[in-house]
Structures are given as structure tokens and as C-alpha cells.
Design a protein that fits this description.
This protein is of the alpha/beta class and about 220 residues long. It contains seven helices and seven strands; from the N terminus they run ααβαββαβαβααββ. Bound molecules: S-adenosylmethionine.
Amino acid sequence: MSLWQDFLTNRGKAIHKWEHYFPIYERHFAGWRNRSLTFLEIGVAKGGSLAMWRRYFGPLARIVGVDVDPRCARHEEGGVFVRVGDQSDKGFLQSVIDEFGAPDIVLDDGSHKMGDIRAAFEFLYPKLPKNGVYMVEDLHTAYWLEYGGGVDAPESFINLAKALIDKLNADHGRGAVPPDAFTRDTFAMSFYDSVVVFEKGQAWRKAATETGGARGGRP
Ligand SMILES: C[S@@+](CC[C@H](N)C(=O)[O-])C[C@H]1O[C@@H](n2cnc3c(N)ncnc32)[C@H](O)[C@@H]1O
């Protein structure tokens, strides 16, 4: 069953998602189904999304939800774990990693405030394994003042992500942008309406290569 079908036929705990996210989830998460993975969702609310992820990823998946609201602890069930804390609290996030290991996938559906999104990303992204995926959703708030956003706001996560495009390409920047760990460890960044996705991956060699010869049939 596709995730979209699962969502539409859900009769269990409430799930709160924008409809156009489902093709994005499938694009970035489908390859992880029925594999052993740790999936961390920031923002538990009524618990329905954690249960959905468990159904989607299958019996080898460990689904971990974090939420600042202690009432969310009741959403623990088989294969689904909930820890209560603030996504901007590095000590709390470290305790989650100490308990469950670094997550393979992070989905930030938490406070949607710029400072919180950034704090969680800056702490967690470097800890993801080499093929990890980090997705931030509901980034329409990056344009909203009450969430610390604004089209020119330096704290906007969209503006942070725009700057990270230069880090992704820093090996070709002729010194203008110093390459760093993000350059080394990031394979791709994807932008959608309200969603940004970072895929980790290391290119051990970046080389432009020509194969075949002029007389070998190339025009
Ligand atoms: C949009 S809801 C999550 C919805 C859920 N993932 C779903 O799909 O049904 C956002 C959740 O983030 C939690 N939250 C708000 N601020 C937070 C913070 N600083 N750290 C962790 N969780 C936070 C709220 O308590 C709320 O339950």
C-alpha cells in the first residue's frame, strides 16, 4: 500500500499532513522500506504519523518520536518510541542518540520556528550516517514573522538552505566558499513547496571525465 493510501484509509490516531507531501515522502523514503532503520520524527502530536511510519517502513524499522509535550509519551507502542524534550535542546537530542543511535532519517515536523529548526538541524545533520536523509517540512513558516521567518530574515531556514547550496558546490568556488563537512558529506539538496530535503553521501572523487575518442563515434 502506498503511503498516500495508508493516510487516506487511516482510521487510527490522527495524522496531520499536507497532501502534497506524500509524493515527496515516497520519493525520498521508498528505498528505505523493509530495511532496518531508525526514523526520527520531531513532532508527535496525536501519534498518528508515528504509527503510519511504522506501517510504511515495516517490521525492521524503529520509529522514534520526540515532542516537547509530555502527553505524547502515551503514543509509544510496538516499534514506536517517544521521548519528551525540546528539539532545540542539544543535551536532549544527544540523549536520544545515546539511546537509539544516530537516526537514518530525520523528519522535522516540530515547532516550525526558525531557531528550533536550525538548532535541531545543526546538531543532528552532522550525526546522520553517510546515506542519511534530513527532511524539514512546513517551511511556509520561513516566510512568517511570528515563526522568526521573513523573505530576507537571516534566521529563515530557507535562507540558511540557500547558503548551503553554495557549500554543496564549494569545491568549485575557486576559494570563494571554503569547503567544509557539509560539502564533503552532502550528496543532494531538494526543494519543494514548504519542504527541503538533504541527502547525505560522499563523493570520494569529483572528476570530469571524457570516455571514448573523437573517432570512436562521438559527434
Ligand atoms: C505539527 S505537530 C506534529 C504533527 C505530527 N507529526 C503529525 O504528522 O500528525 C507539531 C508538534 O510539535 C511539538 N513541538 C512544538 N515545539 C516543539 C519543540 N520545541 N520541540 C519538540 N516538539 C515541539 C508540538 O507539541 C506538536 O505536538
